[in-house]
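Translate sequence into structure tokens.
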Amino acid sequence: MPFRLERRTPPGRGRPQPRQRRGLAPSRNPTPIDRLVVCHGDPCAPNTLIGDDGRWRAHVDMATMGVADRWADLAVGSWSLSWNYGDGWEDLFFDTYGIAADRERIAYYRLLWDLG
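Result follows.
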């Protein structure tokens, strides 16, 4: 049985607010680790600085950086694109990264983010 995110409050647009987080609960054990890498820990779009030429310049807000499953950053980083730029960027994010979106891991790590 794959991991499922059970939402006990009405769905809303964008990142759930703290009052909604109490209504989220995992429906089973954690997903297995895919690949351990150095993760940013707060991979939202504003923490990636892009220069005027459109090229990456730096990452900021590195206080929660550490070793984790790569999906911890990929799930939240792709999610933050909709918070900051609107819907429709997630497929391009994963295509550019070169992997298929793993919906089970994405749901699990987004749940952890919301409960954190």
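Note: The first strand starts at residue 5 and ends at 7.
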